[in-house]
Amino acid sequence: MRKWLLLICSVTLVISIVLVSVSGLPAWWLLINSAIVLAALVFERRGYEPKASNPAALKPTGERFNDPTSGELIEVWEDPRTGAREYRPVVRSADAE
Length: 97
What we know:
By secondary structure, the protein is α+β, with helices and mostly antiparallel strands. It has helices at about 1-25, 30-45, and strands at about 60-65, 75-80, 85-90. A hairpin with a 6-residue loop joins strand 1 and strand 2 (about 75-80).
């Protein structure tokens, strides 16, 4: 779905650039809105990067959940000093299967 949204926003951005160059002022709102939505789609993934500055200080909290997007079992790790949290996939050993 994300790829489709990127494609639609890109096409809308190109169309709005053409409209602005041909007709001028009336299409500026489309150009600005297309650029904002496209930028939001491109940069929204950066919010999911780990926040902990020192991964060695992280301790497991015991919280686990199934990620609805990937279906993976995720474990929550936290730095007790700063409260920074990180979400890691649970590594299952070959012996457990």
